[in-house]
Specification:
homotetramer, 137 residues, alpha+beta, Thiol Ester Dehydrase, Chain A
Amino acid sequence: MTIDPRIQASFDRQSMMATLGAQLIQAGDGSATITAPILPGAMQQQGFGHAGLTFSIGDSAAGYAALTLIPVHQEVVTAEIKINLLAPAKGDRLIARGRVVKPGRRLIVVASDVYAETDRTERHVACLMGTMMPVDL
Amino acid sequence: MTIDPRIQASFDRQSMMATLGAQLIQAGDGSATITAPILPGAMQQQGFGHAGLTFSIGDSAAGYAALTLIPVHQEVVTAEIKINLLAPAKGDRLIARGRVVKPGRRLIVVASDVYAETDRTERHVACLMGTMMPVDL
Amino acid sequence: MTIDPRIQASFDRQSMMATLGAQLIQAGDGSATITAPILPGAMQQQGFGHAGLTFSIGDSAAGYAALTLIPVHQEVVTAEIKINLLAPAKGDRLIARGRVVKPGRRLIVVASDVYAETDRTERHVACLMGTMMPVDL
Amino acid sequence: MTIDPRIQASFDRQSMMATLGAQLIQAGDGSATITAPILPGAMQQQGFGHAGLTFSIGDSAAGYAALTLIPVHQEVVTAEIKINLLAPAKGDRLIARGRVVKPGRRLIVVASDVYAETDRTERHVACLMGTMMPVDL
């Protein structure tokens, strides 16, 4: 599937994604998917992926889901987002799937689920729910 | 001020903190402070600090605030946390101040405020409120 | 469908539900459904249902979803819950559908969606995500 | 202290507040205070105040705190709000103190703390953090 160059370019400007080894693998029609390895440099104290890693890709997946639905002269910024952590982030890689729950001109309500994949089996490790705000470029 | 070696050791195991250049500068009596530069590798698409950076140090500051209040045979993990972003993360460095709102044997409610410092002036960029769960080592 | 008498009895002890005219219409297998009219005494300042009404039934639906999965010697209490309001609460009645996202012995992560029904058409008015804590009776 | 008649009138239109026996006792300069008894009709299943009661006055206190800072041709609506419950709502009455954390033209970040008062001693029972959105009347 092809990703809109405008969305890919925005993702590529997020240097945090490169630092975390994250890739945008799908974006369109109010959803977006980001994958990331659990790099040695992204751990918490017990050797699992840091909540900040899970949050970063979950938040970005939600943001790019929103970006697929707004006019080209706008970007989105996160107004607020909450994460519930369900299980340790361990495995071969993380997969964050974001989606728009409710589009809007002023606010876009979004959600995201993050899974840890091990031997092609997915485990649900976090869910996020938040609000994106469109801003003019 | 001296930081409890057990807390410093836990922080040092969080490789995410090293990746972000973060330092634990205070921890004790239900509070903790973490500072971090806004590294070139921690940006969002507009060139400000990524929400994942602000979140990571805000979450960790809240977690270490909780850790100061629990028995030595326990660690804490984040059960859930919400972040409201108030202003772009730009400036010389970020400062995250975490505190325990309500200690508890089963759950510890925590909060954190993140500031961006520019020329020694602080701007409030985010507030977090969440729940830490003590777990046996 | 029959509702477990233990769950119905718990619901009947929630006098807030009676005050709001709410009814438990389904509970089992990690989900629960509550309906409520938008009573004249449950309005906000613009004449729509108060966020507290939407919250109350959304929170209770999530709680009873959790209760269906725990041992009979336990109850659940809400540790935390977040609500995103998507549209005004107006129409013939509200329907809150709660579900367990992740069961657990110490914490149960739950979600709930609230809809406003008008002429048998549903509109999504709120989504909630939270944490229930099992407690011994 | 005198409450701005516009704010009192808005509060008086919130029939949910009357149903809960709630009173607006202060509003001005980015803060507001609401008190409420724990009425027999506002209980959860264990005989404590329902989370929906605590939420309702906490949310409204935060909303009126925001209303003190916006132009007279606008109202506010809750976009989202999260509540962490710290202790059972029991005692002589509840007191919700709302405040503006960050004013804004598009979004107003707010917080609220709810206390249960028994024999003039207050116990912290909940904290809320959320987002209000100004809307034209």
